[in-house]
Amino acid sequence: MANVSTDEAMRRAIALAARGLGTTSPNPVVGCVLLDPSGEVVGEGFHAYTGGPHAEIVALAQAGERAKGGTAVVTLEPCNHTGRTGPCAQALIQAGISRVVVAVSDPNPVASGGAHTLREAGIEVVTGVRAAEAEAGNIAWLTSVRRGWPYVTWKYAATLDGRSAAADNTSMWITSEAARMDVHALRGTVDAVLVGVGTVLADDPRLTARNLRDGSLAIRQPLRVVVDSSGRTPEQARVRDGAAGTWVATADEVGTVDGGRVDLPALLAALDRRGVRSVLLEGGPTLAGAFLAAGLVDRVIGYVAPKLLGAGPAALSGAGVTTIAEIIELDFVDITQVGPDLRFTAVPRKREG
């Protein structure tokens, strides 16, 4: 294999890390590439599942003695603690690695300190290589650990004129099968899917991640969360079918605000205690509006169909905007065509002051 630069190796490590999306939580996704002293790739690895070997350990096992004197290129600072597996910093030291290149420092106080341990052992440590790219690939975990509640993505589907259903409330299907398959793949990358009880009563969704072609369920299912202040979710609702875990979050259990509604920050804190790092908000326009009004949405993913209804429920309502000066501004991160539809990804801009 040809020699590669540390920058190229980090790009590869970031791609490797992405393979763990959806299976490593509550742990981060991590990728590692090992270069021998001449710059040849001698080992690769990524964290594949919770409790499994970390990326560095997989790469070291592949490299064997060829790792000695080489460089470890890692998307996240090597851990410095013993959990289900041993500390990766010590494993790199024992393997004789002479240099470690890191994209992002570990914000978890339990696991951080690996860079210090490596430097104490005489190993050169370089940080910040392709940091923005690595951050983006691990954004849910990093955000959750830094602030103490999950990363929230609001997903919706609408016509080109912003309608989520027709005037008679029929909505199947606004978007194409390709878009719906994309949503199921998205569900497979998050820890929880969240809706309001109104959506359960109106649509009776399953909220599972599955293959739409044959109906088979994905191996890993997100927790299904129903925001239900007064416990109206029927016992026969499909979210209770046992295909995945379900939590009906009532006001009595979570806490209330304004007229008995479920306290959304308290709900997210409770999910964090359950190990949930990422939430996909799929509820109706009212619940989405409440999350946006509270400043709790980190990312918006919209599937927009090239269709017009002219009337019917809007995709969003009650977001706390009463005048143009309060408008919620977004920055596009990605715009991709999925079948005949457009999928856009955007993040809310931070408001001044």
UniProtKB/TrEMBL annotation:
Q: What is this protein called?
A: Riboflavin biosynthesis protein RibD
Task: Tell me the function of this protein.
Answer: Converts 2,5-diamino-6-(ribosylamino)-4(3h)-pyrimidinone 5'-phosphate into 5-amino-6-(ribosylamino)-2,4(1h,3h)-pyrimidinedione 5'-phosphate.
Residue span(s) of domain CMP/dCMP-type deaminase:
4-126
Describe cofactor binding as the record notes it.
Answer: Binds 1 zinc ion.
Organism encoding this protein: Polymorphospora lycopeni
PROSITE patterns per the UniProt record, alphabetical: CYT_DCMP_DEAMINASES_1, CYT_DCMP_DEAMINASES_2
Record EC number: 3.5.4.26, 1.1.1.193
Q: Does the keyword Membrane apply?
A: no
| UniProt GO molecular function | 5-amino-6-(5-phosphoribosylamino)uracil reductase activity; diaminohydroxyphosphoribosylaminopyrimidine deaminase activity
| Reactions that this protein is recorded to catalyse | 5-amino-6-(5-phospho-D-ribitylamino)uracil + NADP(+) = 5-amino-6-(5-phospho-D-ribosylamino)uracil + NADPH + H(+); 2,5-diamino-6-hydroxy-4-(5-phosphoribosylamino)-pyrimidine + H2O + H(+) = 5-amino-6-(5-phospho-D-ribosylamino)uracil + NH4(+)
Asked whether the keyword Hydrolase is assigned, the reply is yes
What cofactors are annotated for this protein?
A: Zn(2+)
